[in-house]
Amino acid sequence: MDPSRLHPQARAALGVQPREPLTVANLTAVRHSMVAAVPDEVGLVSAPGNVVDVDANGVPARLFRDGTAGASPVILYAHGGGWVLGDLDTHDGLCRALAGETGWSVLAVDYRRAPEHPFPAALDDLDTALAWLREHGAVHGVDPAPTAVAGDSAGGHLATVAARRARDAGRPLAAQLLICPVVDPAQDYPDLDDYGLHREEMAFFWDAYAPPGVDRSAVDLSPHLADLTGMPPTVIITAELDILRPEAERYAAALSAAGVPVVSACYQGMVHNFPRKLALFDAAHAAMAQLGAALRHWVPVA
Predict the structure, then answer these.
(1) Which of left, alpha, beta for 43 (phi over 0: left; psi -120 to 50: alpha)?
(2) Cα separation of 35 and 235, whole Å?
(3) Which of 22, 42, 199, 200 is the most exposed place for a label (fewest CB within 10 A)?
């Protein structure tokens, strides 16, 4: 890949990011550093007006609402971080921006992380939080009909599997919003290691989440292998210089071939998971607006 294709904002962001191999030994330090970087990378996002931490049937979560009267539809959100990094604080700004752009409430799920809690713990937590929304959302000013699902990176993987599980259970979701998602454990990546997310890093993430010996061809780990008929309308945001772009685009094509309404947008010159870093990338705000516009088009609400 020609380095000149790198957007100047992406070049500046990569220039200040120290790189070291991710290991079990330094995992705690890397988790703390991701939280510590939030002020510089994400900045202060003021919307929406009402944010409260909740217990979703034993799963910690954070509910973002705009504070207006009446119940609003809700997006169930799964944060990224390779199933091992990220939490409610690293993705607080993104969830605020998503709530502000869509006009929907957002329930961010603090699911159990690998390697301490490997597959299927995170998925089970999303299912639990979704059930809590249906049972108790009205008490918190949320109307769980309709409910969408969203996630970035590994959270995009969790989100789309949750959507397929909901479809299979006969309670389909209204839409799915996937940001630079992981969808294929085959790890057939292009040579883009100089642009943020590394192939070695993804190998660590997969081994932590679905350790050797786990059947990664199961559809809960390989969502692209599932029957995609009847999946909800989908937006997939990708970054040109992201090793996950090809698999995300293949997934978009597979969804479209199954008759699912799909918007797949590649942001030129961008790097993995740029939409979370609202303080660094102008394109992050455009991506948030695109997610909001698509959701409002597909699922108009009063």
Answers:
(1) left
(2) 27
(3) 200
